[in-house]
Design goal:
By secondary structure, the protein is α/β, with parallel strands linked by helices. The protein is built from ten helices and 15 strands.
Length: 344
């Protein structure tokens, strides 16, 4: 099989997980990368076996002619980079947040659709192995009718004046932080498990005064199916786990037959009504980021391009997540529940 040729824009903290996943994949090769700092691009290229490095993304795309352009740069750059890929007919993966605003995200999606290219949003949380297992069990009717799901987000990385500076320092300056940067992952994951969202109620706040945006909040989601969802986010406190960034917190999924609990170490625990809680065994790899979900997502995109299934995180569908995000901020501002339609 002819290898798929990958070009990567960006060399920041999280890009390392993506470079590593591409390098591990069979029948895939990273043929080029770019960054504003050429020396940084060349250093990353040397580490991950990338053939060529550039400062200019246009030069990168014209020189290496990739099959996939993987955009791992800050959100304000995404629109122009997708436009460059679209002009050349190159399938594109774009990191989230997809864009700084809903309007810009809509424009980005329209550019890709008009050009007829694949646009996949790099949304990997739904590919974490514990959520894939829960989706498998839902499809088996393990839970019967679903009642509720709840997640307590507690990574413990947001305390003190140096919060986020060692890993992702731009977090401190984001005026929209917890929801826009992080909880969007769980909005997508809750949709993956529970279906479409019909209403939102939210209360947000800032606990650490050194940052610009919100870092804690409660988000209540009402689903079209009747399922209720609760996301309780707080970046300052942590949770019981050897690695608090593995699951980032604890999750519960409730149905007619019982409750499944995700602990901080990736363990799933089943409690049927009236019976003791027992461990639910499943297989997953404790490597890379959060159960190797970056590899799983990128493998999914490759399989899609090779006609092996529908794309789960297509740009058009992902706009629903961003509309829900906007509803969260609107609810917090107004103090009222926001009802949603399902048109995108």
């Amino acid at each position: 099989m002819k290898p798929l040729r990958i070009a990567v824009a960006g060399c920041g903290y999280f890009s390392r997980f993506q470079y590593e996943a591409w390098r591990e994949m069979v029948a895939v090769e990273i043929v080029g990368n770019c960054a504003l700092d050429l020396a940084e691009a060349e250093s990353v290229a040397l580490e991950y076996g990338v053939a060529r490095s550039f400062e200019d993304p246009q030069a990168l795309l014209d020189a290496v002619k990739p099959d996939i352009f993987d955009i791992v740069t800050p959100p304000p750059t995404h629109l122009d980079l997708v436009r460059e890929a679209a002009a050349r007919g190159i399938a594109t993966i774009c990191q989230k947040p997809l864009a700084p605003s809903l309007a810009e995200a809509e424009a980005l999606v329209e550019i890709a659709e008009e050009a007829g290219i694949m646009l996949a949003v790099h949304e990997n949380f739904r590919f974490q192995p514990w959520y894939r297992e829960l989706r498998r069990l839902i499809d088996m009717d393990w839970f019967g009718r679903l009642h509720a799901m709840a997640f307590r987000f507690r990574p413990g990385d947001g305390q003190g004046p140096r919060a986020y500076l060692d890993r992702q320092p731009y977090f401190q300056a984001m005026k929209r932080f917890l929801i826009h940067e992080t909880i969007i992952h769980y909005i997508d994951t809750f949709r993956y498990l529970g279906g479409e969202v019909a209403s939102v109620y939210a209360q947000l706040r800032r606990l650490n005064p050194v940052i610009a945006g919100e870092d804690a909040g409660i988000v209540m989601l009402g689903f079209q199916s009747g399922v209720s969802g609760l996301i309780d986010g707080n970046r300052l406190n942590d949770h019981p786990a050897a690695n608090t960034r593995l699951t980032h917190g604890e999750f519960w999924l409730e149905g007619e037959t019982g409750v499944m609990r995700l602990d901080g170490d990736g363990g799933l625990w089943w409690k049927a009504h009236g019976l003791p809680e027992t461990r639910h065994d499943y297989v997953w790899r404790d490597r890379g980021f959060a159960g190797d979900c970056v590899y799983a997502f990128q493998r999914h995109v490759v399989d899609h391009l090779r006609d092996q299934g529908a794309l789960e995180t297509a740009g058009r569908d992902y706009l629903r997540n961003i509309r829900i995000e906007e509803a969260v901020y609107e609810s917090d501002r107004s103090g009222h529940r926001v009802d949603l339609d399902f048109e995108v």
